[in-house]
Design a protein that fits this description.
Layout lengths: L4 E6 L14 E2 L2 E2 H9 L5 E6 L1 H10 L7 E5 L6 H10 L6 E6 L7 H9 L6 E6 L2 E2 L3 E4 H8 L8 H4 L5 E5 L12 H13 L1
Parallel strand pairs: 1-4, 1-6, 4-5, 7-10
Antiparallel strand pairs: 2-3, 6-9, 7-8, 7-9
């Protein structure tokens, strides 16, 4: 399909944070819901990859409904690449997929749209802020096909993507570099949000 889909990676243990990152409060909502609300304005289908514990929490405390939203579980949570593989298996017939981390809750629709605008420039479209590469990334059919063929899941995604062409899109938004892993980083994010 020409229209894009998205994978939201939410299978981590959140050990450094001390509580599940998908459900951290943010903008009168929580991380995961905020990301979904942003993506559903641009993509046709969204898959969220959970670990088993977060999946149970979702349905017990954080119900989310969106017609084109589906969930899958990575029961091998030490392998991030496996989360991407599982997410791709849920998104059949899509030639373009955004890969979004749940610990980057400030993703902007404008960023997603800019990456989509340049989708034909390379296999992997990557946002950049002052020469620093961020998230999300957009992958095309060539990358998707290569990931589907894998039966080894210890890959580092950045290393795996070295075999593909890349195009960097300048984004005037530092939030593409966010990676909220600790309580201090989360508190700083909340403080910055209040000051906007």
């Amino acid at each position: 399909m020409e229209h894009p889909a998205a994978i939201i990676l939410a299978a981590g243990k959140s050990i450094r944070m001390g509580k599940p990152k998908p459900f951290l409060k943010y903008k009168n909502s929580f991380f995961l819901k905020n990301i979904i609300e942003t993506y559903k304005k641009q993509v046709n289908k969204i898959t969220v990859v959970f670990n088993p514990y977060n999946f149970l929490l979702l349905f017990k405390h954080y119900p989310i409904y969106y017609p084109n939203l589906c969930f899958t579980i990575n029961d091998n949570i030490n392998e991030r690449f496996y989360s991407i593989y599982k997410g791709i298996l849920c998104l059949k017939n899509y030639n373009y997929i955004f890969i979004q981390n749940v610990d980057n809750p400030s993703v902007k629709l404008k960023t997603i749209q800019l990456l989509w605008k340049y989708r034909n420039k390379a296999d992997v479209i990557i946002p950049a802020y002052k020469n620093l590469h961020g998230h999300p990334i957009l992958i095309n059919r060539n990358v998707i096909a290569a990931i589907k063929k894998q039966n080894y899941f210890h890959h580092n995604l950045k290393t795996f993507l070295q075999q593909f062409t890349k195009f960097y899109v300048l984004i005037k938004d530092r939030s593409i570099l966010e990676n909220i892993n600790t309580l201090n980083e989360y508190l700083k994010l909340c403080e910055n949000e209040k000051s906007v």
